[in-house]
Amino acid sequence: MYELGYSARQTLDWGYIICSQTLAYGAGELDIWLIKADSLGDTLWTKTYGGSDYNWGRFAQQTSDSGYIILGQTQSFGAGNTDLYVIKTDARGDTVWTKTYGGRASEYTTSMQQTGDGGYIILGTSTLFSTGGYDAWLIKTDAGGDTLWTRSYGGSEQEEGYFVQQTHDGGYILTGYTSSFGNGGYDVFIVKTNASGNMLWTKTVGGDGDDIGYCIQETGDGGYIIVGRTDSYGAGGDDLWLIKLEPDLSGIPPDSKMNIPGQPVLYQNYPNPFNPVTTIEFNLPKSSEVTLKIFNILGEEVATLLSERLSAGSYSYEWSRPAGIASGVYLYRLQAGDYIETRKMVLMR
Questions:
Q1: Across the strands, what pairs with 179?
Q2: d(CA 109, CA 10)
Q3: In the CATH scheme, what is the code of domain 259-347?
Q4: In degrees, to the nearest 5, what angle opens at C-alpha 133 toward C-alphas 127 and 138?
Q5: pTM of the predicted protein model
Q6: Which residues of 7-41 are buried (b: 16+ CB within 10 A; e: fewer)?
Q7: Bridge-partner residues for 245, per DSSP?
Q8: What confidence tens digit (pLDDT) does each residue in 2-48 have?
Q9: Which of 114, 115, 127, 172 is most buried (CB neighbours < 10 A)?
Q10: CB–CB of 121/110 below 8 Å?
Q11: How far is residue 1's CA from residue 148's CA, in Å, rounded to a whole number?
């Protein structure tokens, strides 16, 4: 028949969740097909989702409650043509809720992530708020999938968004392509936003051919790494293209952009939610006595990651879930001299 896999992620039990689409099973023409496998790839259970028309699965991820979130597209439900389709399930794959996003025109999507507040960030492509053709379309929802805000990014021609990630500062970084800006053809399109989706900066990378960014990740130095394709450079035709961007200095005052900020900065841990390991990073503007500790929600100390004098610089520490530590909300606190900052993180089951 016609089965295609689009996404595979490891789950907390060391197995895998696979998002695909199928003609062989389901309710209609083409349905979303979710497969749960054990650590050896043997099927534990499968589920299909969709209606009487076409439905496409693009991405699935385990959520902080041990259920799953599925991102796809549908012609069975929604406002018309093709809409974004999100399904929240429990740990057995049974549907908890579904949502569609879009208008009468067609919308497309490729990327979704659970955010630190338990909600979701979704990246798609839409003409709903466009000033030209399709624009990159960002949707922020709460934990129940209800829309908190939407933003679109683009110019007079066409843009598509392919990947979004929440960044340490609580904002978002996304990539795709643009034909409105850049050097000609399609250029890699990068947009950095704050936590409300308001644009902080954009960047295009490319030549006179077609260049597209498919995935972007924040790196430990505060910059970004992008993987995509290019036919502007390389050996000819389409070549794989890896791009490294310098650290993001957009939130630092202009007179200190070449230096560490004037006070310590504690970043949001990543990944968050997590299990079993997460990374905590911070910056120091000067030499200080530093402690970095983990507390449970009752304020009881769980672990001390650091207690020593450090010189000015950037630091990164990992916290691995100790035996006997329950899942739930934890706090990590940085103290450097008189400076104290606390942030929240979620340990998954």
A1: none
A2: 22
A3: 2.60.40.1930
A4: 45
A5: 0.71
A6: beeebeeebbbbbbbbeeebeeebbbbbbbbeeee
A7: 224
A8: 677 888 998 888 899 999 988 877 666 788 999 999 999 999 999 99
A9: 172
A10: no
A11: 39
In angstroms, the CA 174 to CA 26 distance is 33
Q: How many CB atoms lie within 10 A of CB 168?
A: 17
Q: Looking at domain 3-245, does it have CATH number 2.120.10.10?
A: yes
Query: CA-to-CA distance for 80 and 104, rounded, in angstroms?
Result: 5
Residues 189-201 have pLDDT tens digits of: 999 999 999 988 8
> Letter for the amino acid at 58?
R
135-140: which pairs have CB atoms within 8 A and are 24 or more residues apart?
Answer: 135/159, 136/160, 136/161, 136/174, 136/176, 136/189, 136/191, 137/107, 137/161, 138/164, 138/172, 138/174, 138/193, 138/197, 139/84, 139/101, 140/115, 140/197
Q: Could you say which residues of the chain have pLDDT below 70? A: 1-2, 26-28, 129-132, 249-262, 349
CB–CB of 49/95 below 8 Å?
yes
**Burial letters 129-148, b for 16+ CB under 10 A, else e:** ebeebbbbbbbbbeeebeee
Tell me the C-alpha distance between 327 and 330, whole Å: 9
Region label for 206, one of left (φ > 0), alpha (ψ between -120 and 50) or beta (otherwise):
left
Q: How far apart are CA 124 and CA 31, in angstroms?
A: 20
